[in-house]
Design goal:
single chain; about 500 residues; mainly alpha; two-stranded antiparallel ribbon; about 45% helix; globular
C-alpha cells in the first residue's frame, strides 16, 4: 500500500512543482497542494485525470477475467500471453495482478485528495460552484466504481454469514496519507463505503441526469452502478429498483436494428450507452487484439483466444448478436489455416489505422440493466417481472420470448447474460456470484487449433465454485510492505 501512495505522491508533487514551488519547503511525504486546488478549472483538471486513468487501465481486468473463465480457449498461437489466467496458475507476485491493484489504488489516492480539496475551492459564481459540485459527485461515483471492481476481484462473495468476518473485505482508504497501512475491512464495511459514495454522488449529480453516449458519470450512471453493486452484494430489492429506474427513464432504448447494434461496437455509436469513455486514435483504451489480431503478412487472423463452440451455439440464427458479437473469419494457426468464429465485439480499424484495435470503454450499457432487473426480480420471487425484462431484451435482439419457470427461468437468465455480455469482463464474477463451477468444454474445432496439454489446465479445465483462485491474490509487494493486510487463502 505505501508504495502505491508514493507513486501518486510523485504525480501530485509534479503538479505543484510546475507552479514553481520549492520541493525543500515540505517533507518528502507531504503533498504540496496549495496551488493545485485554486479554481473550478483546477478541479476539472483533476476530474479529467480520473477518466484518463479509467481509460488507460480499461480491459486489463476485464479481458483477464474472461480468459480465466469458461468462455475462451487458448489457441496454438497464444505463446502463453495471459497464460496465468487461462491455466489458473496465478501467483501473488505476478505483475498482471499487481498492476490491476496498484493502478486502482493510485486512482483512489488521487480521488481521496480531490474529495478533501474540492470543497475548499473558492468560487465566484453559482455556475462555478455547480461545476465543482459536479466534479465532486463524479469523484465519489468513480471511487465507488473502483472499490466495487476491487471487491469483486480480490474478495470472496458477500453473504450474510461472512459479511462481518474480519479481513475479507478491502483495505479502505478515504483520505490521502502516505503513512497509512490499513488492514482489510469486513465485506459489510466495504459495501457500506460503496453505498455511501453512491449516495453522495446521487445527491451531487442530481441535476446531471444523463443521456446516450455520455463520456462522464451522470445520475443515470450512478443508478446503473448502484444496480450493479447491489446485485453483487445480493441486495436484490435495491438492484431491481435501481435498474428499473434507469430503464424507466426511457433515455436508453434498446435497439432492434442490426446496423445500429453493429455500429455500437464498430464505431462506438452512442446507442444503448449510459457511459462510454471518450476515445480517439491518439487516446486509446488497452486493446483486445488477443481475440482477433490480423496478420498483414499472410492476410489472416492469428488470435490467441477463441470462443468455445458451446458459446457460439448459444446464439440462434435470428439473433442480431450472432453476426455482431461473433464472426467467422479466415484464421491461421500453427496447425494450419481454417475458418474460425472469433470474438467480434472489438473489430479492428474503428479508429484510423486498419490494424488498430482502439475502442471506447463502455462502462455501462442499458442491456445490462435489463439483465440485472431480470435476475433481481427472479431472486425476489417475482418471476413475471423477471420474464418481462428478459423478454424485452430478447425481443429487441430478434429472438423468441422465454416461457420457462422456476430454475429453468434462472438458467435462461444466466444464458442471456452470456449472450449479451460475453467478452466484456462479467463472466467470472457472474460464476462467483452464482456459486457455479468454472468448467470449460466443447472447444471449437475439437482440438485442431487449441492448446491442449495439459488438458485440465486448458480445454478440460474444471474448477469448483470454492476454488481459491476464483479470487485473485493481494499482490505480494503489498502484503510484504503492509503486514496488516491478510492474504487470500491459497496463495
Amino acid at each position: 500500500m505505501k508504495q502505491i501512495y508514493k507513486i501518486t505522491l510523485a504525480m501530485v508533487a509534479a503538479v505543484s512543482l510546475s507552479s514553481c514551488e520549492n520541493l525543500d519547503q515540505d517533507p518528502y511525504d507531504s503533498v504540496i497542494t496549495k496551488n493545485a486546488f485554486k479554481s473550478a478549472n483546477d478541479a476539472r483538471y483533476w476530474r479529467d485525470g480520473f477518466y484518463k486513468t479509467l481509460r488507460d487501465n480499461y480491459s486489463y481486468l476485464e479481458k483477464r477475467t474472461d480468459i480465466q473463465s469458461d468462455l475462451l480457449n487458448a489457441t496454438t498461437n497464444f505463446e502463453n500471453r495471459e497464460g496465468f489466467f487461462q491455466t489458473w496458475t496465478i501467483l501473488s507476485d505476478h505483475a498482471s495482478i499487481s498492476n490491476v491493484w496498484k493502478n486502482r489504488y493510485k486512482l483512489l489516492a488521487d480521488i481521496n485528495l480531490s474529495i478533501e480539496k474540492f470543497p475548499t475551492i473558492v468560487t465566484t459564481t453559482a455556475a462555478e460552484q455547480a461545476q465543482v459540485n459536479q466534479y465532486l459527485g463524479e469523484a465519489y461515483a468513480i471511487r465507488a466504481y473502483t472499490y466495487l471492481q476491487l471487491v469483486q476481484r480480490f474478495c470472496p462473495q458477500y453473504t450474510e454469514a461472512n459479511k462481518d468476518t474480519p479481513d475479507l473485505g478491502l483495505p479502505l482508504v478515504t483520505r490521502y496519507d502516505v503513512k497509512l497501512l490499513p488492514a482489510r475491512a469486513t465485506l459489510a464495511q466495504t459495501f457500506e463505503l460503496i453505498y455511501s459514495d453512491i449516495a453522495q454522488a446521487r445527491t451531487l449529480l442530481a441535476s446531471r441526469v444523463g443521456g446516450q453516449g455520455s463520456t462522464i458519470f451522470t445520475l443515470d450512471a450512478v443508478r446503473a452502478l448502484e444496480a450493479r453493486a447491489a446485485l453483487s452484494k445480493g441486495d436484490y430489492s435495491g438492484a431491481y429498483d435501481s435498474a428499473k429506474a434507469v430503464i424507466d427513464s426511457g433515455r436508453y432504448p434498446l435497439t432492434s436494428n442490426a446496423n445500429t447494434l453493429e455500429a455500437i461496437w464498430r464505431t462506438d455509436d452512442r446507442a444503448e450507452s449510459i457511459v462510454q469513455l471518450f476515445t480517439s486514435a491518439n487516446e486509446a483504451t488497452p486493446d483486445y487484439s488477443h481475440y482477433n489480431y490480423f496478420s498483414q503478412a499472410n492476410r489472416k487472423y492469428i488470435p490467441d483466444y477463441i470462443p468455445s463452440q458451446w458459446v457460439v451455439d448459444l446464439y440462434e440464427d435470428t439473433d442480431l448478436r450472432k453476426d455482431v458479437y461473433l464472426k467467422a473469419l479466415p484464421t491461421s494457426f500453427k496447425t494450419g489455416n481454417f475458418t474460425t468464429v472469433l470474438v467480434n465485439k472489438y473489430p479492428r480499424g474503428s479508429y484510423g489505422s486498419a490494424n488498430s484495435y482502439v475502442h471506447a470503454a463502455k462502462l455501462f450499457r442499458i442491456a445490462e440493466q435489463y439483465l440485472i432487473a431480470a435476475e433481481a426480480a427472479y431472486k425476489n420471487g417475482h418471476s413475471d417481472d423477471a420474464k418481462n425484462y428478459l423478454n424485452q431484451l430478447r425481443h429487441a435482439r430478434g429472438v423468441a420470448d422465454i416461457t420457462a419457470t422456476g430454475v429453468d427461468l434462472f438458467e435462461a437468465i444466466k444464458k442471456e447474460r452470456i449472450r449479451e455480455l460475453a467478452f466484456e469482463g462479467f463472466r467470472l464474477d457472474d460464476l462467483k456470484r452464482w456459486g457455479d463451477p468454472v468448467r470449460r468444454h466443447d472447444p471449437q474445432g475439437g482440438v485442431s487449433y487449441i492448446t491442449k496439454d495439459p488438458a485440465d489446465q486448458y480445454y478440460q479445465l474444471n474448477k469448483a465454485a470454492n476454488d481459491p483462485m476464483l479470487i485473485w491474490p493481494i499482490p505480494l509487494n503489498d502484503t510484504d510492505i503492509n503486514k496488516n493486510i491478510k492474504q487470500n487463502p491459497g496463495y
